[in-house]
Design a protein that fits this description.
about 350 residues, 2 domains, 14 helices, elongated
């Protein structure tokens, strides 16, 4: 699990043992931002025998011929996507003894319960002998019991705040910033790291919103546009990373003399993954903005306890108003999962927030 393994020693040991004599299917459980996706890729690399640096790098970049990742394009897996999982499961390995399929957001196979879940269930019931399926989810209870029962479940543990903070300090993060990120990270080292880096500016803007709400339409539009700009700025870094990945891939294909047809097939796989990641990243960024706003109102309701937002002055609103604000955040969160084009929804969210009274 690489440098994200701090606090996950038990999970790392379980995955290493599992890779020695693998079962046909695994269920990796952990919240988004916990590093569960990276853990799945590291596990896949062990399963296909990618023990050298180049092999692990190919898995990380999604171009190893024997490791195929799947993510839903929309709010759920459609029939064609589920059938693609089944098709890939029955293909023979290219380089090693095994083929590994990593299915992200696996709970979306069952929304609603239909042909998609049944297609996967048939594959799990009659698994090809040289294929291992790794389902990744943050909400295992949304998966069919028949699917869960056919997988070996491995949960990522929440990482204690002191371990997260100590790890961040070793990364060079100042002590105060490390403690803040650990508190806001919710036991997720990967998310805490992001809050010290690519998510820091977005969190700062979003956490400042409750203090600046006035209740007017013009104010709501201005704050929503500021939030949207912060989301776009963070999303642009994802686009830059994608461009760098493609350039690195093209150079690698030329350096190792790959067949042009194989290179184009792998490049299309990367481009499709980038499209999915770009949409998913925007949704995640909008949810991060909502989360930052939520933490401010939770600090109001938990008055007397150590605040999550220790770097900000306390917000002065009535407890009932803070609870109503959290309800508005929940509604916005549910809407963003369905549709990530969110400026209108951001305006509606800010309009629903109470003006500060102090």
């Amino acid at each position: 699990m690489g440098d994200g393994a701090a606090g996950q020693e038990r999970t790392t040991a379980v995955l290493e043992r599992a890779a020695q004599r693998p079962a046909h299917a695994y269920l990796l459980v952990g919240p988004r931002g916990s590093g569960v996706e990276d853990a799945a890729r590291a596990f896949a690399a062990q399963l296909v025998g990618a023990h050298d640096e180049r092999g692990r790098d190919l898995v990380r970049r999604g171009v190893h011929p024997d490791v195929v990742e799947f993510e839903p394009v929309g709010a759920q897996y459609v029939v064609d996507e589920a059938q693609a999982v089944r098709h890939e499961a029955h293909r023979a390995p290219t380089e090693g003894e095994r083929r590994v399929l990593v299915v992200h957001e696996a709970e979306k196979l069952c929304r609603p319960i239909a042909v998609t879940a049944n297609a996967l269930l048939k594959t799990l019931e009659e698994p090809p002998p040289r294929t291992v399926i790794v389902l990744v989810t943050s909400v295992p209870e949304d998966l069919l019991p028949t699917i869960r029962s056919r997988c070996q479940r491995i949960d990522l543990d929440p990482v204690p705040d002191d371990v997260v903070a100590a790890t961040l300090r070793r990364d060079g993060v100042p002590a105060d910033a490390a403690a803040l990120a650990a508190a806001l990270g919710g036991g997720q080292l990967a998310r805490a790291r992001a809050l010290c880096g690519p998510l820091r500016a977005l969190r700062d803007v979003a956490a400042s919103v409750p203090q600046r709400v006035t209740g007017t339409g013009a104010n709501a539009v201005a704050l929503a546009e500021e939030l949207d700009a912060a989301v776009e700025a963070a999303a642009s870094r994802v686009a830059e990373r994608h461009a760098a990945e493609l350039a690195e891939f093209d150079a690698d294909m030329e350096r190792h003399g790959y067949d042009e047809r194989d290179a184009q097939r792998l490049r299309r796989r990367i481009e499709k993954r980038h499209q999915r990641e770009a949409r998913r990243a925007r949704i995640d960024l909008l949810l991060e903005a909502v989360t930052a706003i939520e933490t401010v109102y939770r600090d109001v309701l938990a008055a007397g306890a150590p605040p999550l937002n220790a770097d900000r002055p306390p917000l002065t609103v009535a407890a009932r108003a803070a609870a109503a604000a959290l309800d508005a955040c929940r509604e916005a969160r549910e809407a963003f999962v369905v549709n990530e084009k969110g400026l209108v929804r951001l305006v509606a969210l800010v309009m629903a927030l109470p003006p500060a009274t102090g």
